[in-house]
Amino acid sequence: MLALLSIGTTFSIAGAATEAPITAAERSALIDEGQRIFLKGCSSCHGINLEGSAIAPALLGVGAASVDFQVATGRMPVADMSVQIARKQPVYDEKQVEALAAYVSSLAPGPQVPGESQLNYERDGSTAEGGELFRTNCAMCHNFAAQGGALSQGKYAPTLMGVEARHIYEAMITGPQSMPVFSDKTITPNEKLSMIKWIKAVEAEPQLGGAALGRVGPVTEGLLVWTLGLGLLVGVAVWLAMKAR
Amino acid sequence: MSNEIEAIKDPGLPAHVHRRADTDPKAAAKAERQVAILFLLSALGTITLIASYIFIPQDAFIFFPVLGDTNAHQLFLGLGMAASLFFIGMGAIHWAKTLMPDEEVIIQRHEFRSEDEDRADLIATAKAGAAAAGLGRRSLIKRSLGLSLGLVGLSPLILLRDLGPLPGDELKKTSWKAGTRLVTDPGDRPIRAEDLEVGAVAQTLPEVGEGVHRKLSDIGKDAVLLIRLRPEEFNLDAERLSWTHEGIIAFSKICSHMGCAVALYEQQTKHLLCPCHQSTFDVTRAAKVIFGPSARPLPQLAITVDSEGYLIAKQPFTEPVGPSFWERSS
């Protein structure tokens, strides 16, 4: 039975993380390991059968991509139940995340973890196209330079600086937390790679203009000019008008 | 006891207090040195500028606290120029304030009216000039000059036309017609209903013919956001529900407050936010305004699918999209 299950799911998780050929026995061992981790670390909120609870969503059909995004970026397991679950140091190592993803996607199929060959944005992406896509689809929440931005009620769109290409890709196909899903049909995998290539280009861009001030535009720039700049001018004006002793 | 208020006497100007440098030669020498130091700092600034221009490569970056990684070439050019200009000014002012005479001197203003003699002179010169030009005799020149000057006055009026033409009904209509396909923006690919998972969004524009270039003024009115929810999550009346297709609902992306692109969709709360003034619309209730300055919901576009299964507009928008304007009926 277990072998049958694992053969059935091998297909759905093919391409997960390592992409190395993996035998059915290894696969079922991985799923067993994932189940052990899940029961110990996740089931108190997400339910023994992934059915969810009042405080956590059901995980049936979320796919390996969702598990990899949430656990490998440290968002899950959650540290505190505030309005937004923040990125933090991951609790599980890569191998454990892979096992968890294998287990969750073995019960109901969902979006897969993109493999190395699917993430070659240097080869398959176009920076210019990515910029255009980003400005139409992402910039309103994540800021025009991918620095992140505020949503309602204390929620926020996190910065995309320093986020692994794999996790950006997974976020687009799974729609974690407040983020909507960006389907492969409306934004093709290659277009997604273009966006990642553009984000990586922004990340590597030198600060030619000096202080970037968080790259959030007129708010910090205005704050600096109105406090430091104007303060300096006021100081000089006071000195000018002072009578020498 | 009298309640009369005593008139306050004019206190006059305070007595002039001499500066230390005026009385103490040591202080004067010190002030002189300070001025010289300021001027030297300025010279140093200019030398920094020249040296950075010549010696620092244009692609050199250094780490600078607070600023982060900064282009050294530009940084030192700027610092050098700032220092050279700032310290010249500082030096000049410090010089004026400490060493230059500070006695207050009164100079009376002369009469505004010119001397009678000068006035008569001016009039005579002007008349002589006019007579020499012969404007009185040569009427052809006078009239043609009048014509040319008059026409020059017309040109600004003609150029004012660039402010128009009047919008007419342009604000009331968009490119959406019954049967227009929704295509991805950018990419221009038609979208099938099954292309969108629950929780997915898509930025769309009306389909245009191959090679047709969209005008920016059209994109500014036509942009539409597609959102897919579970059909049971809708809380719509029968008409608005019939405008959706299998859980896919379409709204104008142009905010009804000031016209920003409303596309911050929170998947969990089903709220749509405008990034400019935080107007918040509830997608499940036909974009009802639940927060912020917007006065009315985002216009909903009625959608359905065509025979090939692609999403199309069922009808044009039933109300003008975007912010209020004077002639808008509601």
Automatic annotation (TrEMBL), chain A:
It is found in: Cell membrane. InterPro entries: bc1_cytC-su, Cyt_c-like_dom, Cyt_c-like_dom_sf, Cytochrome_c_Oxidase_Subunit. The chain crosses the membrane at residues 223-242. Its EC number is 7.1.1.8. It catalyses: a quinol + 2 Fe(III)-[cytochrome c](out) = a quinone + 2 Fe(II)-[cytochrome c](out) + 2 H(+)(out). Keywords: Cell membrane, Heme, Iron, Membrane, Metal-binding, Repeat, Translocase, Transmembrane, Transmembrane helix, Transport. One of its GO terms (cellular component) is plasma membrane. Its main location: membrane. This is Cytochrome bc1 complex cytochrome c subunit. It comes from freshwater metagenome.
Automatic annotation (TrEMBL), chain B:
One of its GO terms (molecular function) is 2 iron, 2 sulfur cluster binding. It is a multi-pass membrane protein. This is Rieske iron-sulfur protein. One of its GO terms (cellular component) is plasma membrane. Residues 221-312 form the Rieske domain. The keyword tRNA-binding does not apply. Its main location: membrane. Keywords: 2Fe-2S, Cell membrane, Disulfide bond, Electron transport, Iron, Iron-sulfur, Membrane, Metal-binding, Oxidoreductase, Respiratory chain, Transmembrane, Transmembrane helix, Transport. The keyword DNA-binding does not apply. It is found in: Cell membrane. The chain crosses the membrane at residues 35-56, 76-96. SUPFAM superfamilies: ISP domain (SSF50022).
